[in-house]
């Protein structure tokens, strides 16, 4: 049995602006966008402003985009996303294979089964 393509990202460390395709590091935005593309979705292009906002810890414009580009789900579903609180910011995680693929600065990319996680608020890409 072949492992899902997204598993190649597990273990990558965090680095703002990094693309996981190079196999060296990633950030949560690029990680989620790559996984959505693997699932056949057409996520929006990254706004260069997002990284400037993140560097200034000004997340309001990003949150505005989050609510504009996604819609509420009624529980986890494949390729649904959730926001995980962080130290003064957040990270975006995605549901794949009945688990959550997530990125934390301290641990890098990890996957955990949904049954081991608390209830969260999930959203799906609109017109993805």
Structural account:
- The chain is an alpha+beta fold and 128 residues long.
- It has a single domain (5-125), classed as Alpha-Beta Complex (endopeptidase fold (from Nostoc punctiforme)), CATH 3.90.1720.10.
- Helix content is 23%, strand content 23%.
- It is built from 3 helices and 6 strands; from the N terminus they run αααββββββ.
- The strands form 2 sheets. Strands 2-3-4-5 form a 4-stranded antiparallel beta sheet, covered by helices on one side. A two-stranded antiparallel ribbon has the order 1-6.
Which CATH class is shown?
A: Alpha Beta
Query: CATH superfamily membership, which one?
Result: endopeptidase domain like (from Nostoc punctiforme)
Structural class: alpha+beta
Radius of gyration: 14 Å
Separation, N- and C-terminal Cα atoms: 28 Å
Which percent range describes the beta-strand content? Answer: 15-25%
Number of DSSP E strands:
6
The best one-word shape is globular
> What is the percent of helical residues?
10-25%
Q: Please, how many helices?
A: 3
Report the CATH topology name: endopeptidase fold (from Nostoc punctiforme)
Strand order of the largest sheet: 2-3-4-5
Report the mean per-residue pLDDT as an integer: 89
Unreliable spans:
none
- The name of the CATH architecture is Alpha-Beta Complex
How many strands, what sense, and barrel or not for the largest sheet? 4 strands, antiparallel
Taken together, the total number of domains comes to 1
Give the SSE order as H and E letters: HHHEEEEEE
